[in-house]
Amino acid sequence: MRRLTPFSQMTTEALAAKRVVMLDVDDTLTTDGRLTPESYSSLASLKAAGLVVIPVTGRPAGWCDMIARFWPVDAVVGENGAFSFRYDHAGRRMHRTYAASSDERAAQRQKLDALARLILAEVPDAAIASDQSYREADLAIDFAEDVGPLDRCAVATIVRLFEEAGAVAKVSSIHVNGWFGAHDKLSTALRLLATEFDCGAEEAKATVIFVGDSPNDAPMFGYFDDAVGVANVLGVADLCPALPRWVTRARSGDGFVEVAASLLSSRNLPHA
């Protein structure tokens, strides 16, 4: 497993070589459930500097449609890799690519609805995530956003119930997300890079910088040469199958601002 190194030690030359910034949203871009002006400004500055900017999140399709349309980003991967959305502003068209067909998603939804009833019966202090009605492919169980936070034993029970039903379960900083299928954040991110941004899987290892904070980011942490964890990743490091190479000094959105400032400085650009 990688040993986390302070992000401040990443060289200017390595930073300048990055052309794609991928990032988690909750507790990576946001802080305590809020998108701060500083984080959003950093996102806009990276996009204005010519970098490709792609959030890779567990958040739902409804949110991702808005993110792709209105945020200063090039595309978004949502529901832990269930889809990618890219909005063509010139053509005024949303391009949506899914890991599963509509028929497959409908069949999977029936099984997920049954799982929701089972999980809430077993872990009554948990809740269906408030954003569930905007989801197309997964089930999000809230343990720390609008309830709790629940202890690790409760979270482990939720994960176990998903897995016993044959579903994939991934833990974020606020939800346990479960789905049927082999996709994850990494598989869909790599497909998006290859098909929309002419960046193959091997090239991506060196040209992408990914910023995240939680166990569901582990596939991204393990793949990219220069994955970065904001400081709060240290609190869940023992739960991550793979760790990032770098860790910021600051937590959550301030950690993302730290990364953005270094990327811009490596290009001799001011940080807004």
Describe this structure in words.
- With 272 residues, the chain is an alpha/beta fold.
- Helix 2 (37-48) packs parallel to helix 9 (252-265) and helix 4 (102-122) packs across helix 5 (152-164).
- It has a six-stranded parallel sheet. Strands 7-8-10-9 form a four-stranded antiparallel sheet. Strands 4-5-6 form a three-stranded antiparallel sheet, sandwiched between helices.
- It contains nine helices and 13 strands.
Q: Features of this protein?
A:
four-stranded antiparallel sheet, 272 residues, alpha/beta
Number of strands: 13
What is the end-to-end distance?
A: 35 Å
Gyration radius (Cα, Å) is 18 Å
What letter string, H or E per element, gives the SSE order?
A: EHEHEHEEEHEEHEEHHEHEEH
Count of discrete alpha- or pi-helical segments spanning 4 or more residues: 9
Proportion in helices: 25-40%
Can you tell me the residue ranges where pLDDT is under 50 for at least 5 consecutive residues? none
Spatial order of the strands in the main sheet? 1-13-12-11-2-3
Largest sheet: number of strands, sense, barrel closure: 6 strands, parallel
Range of strand content: 15-25%
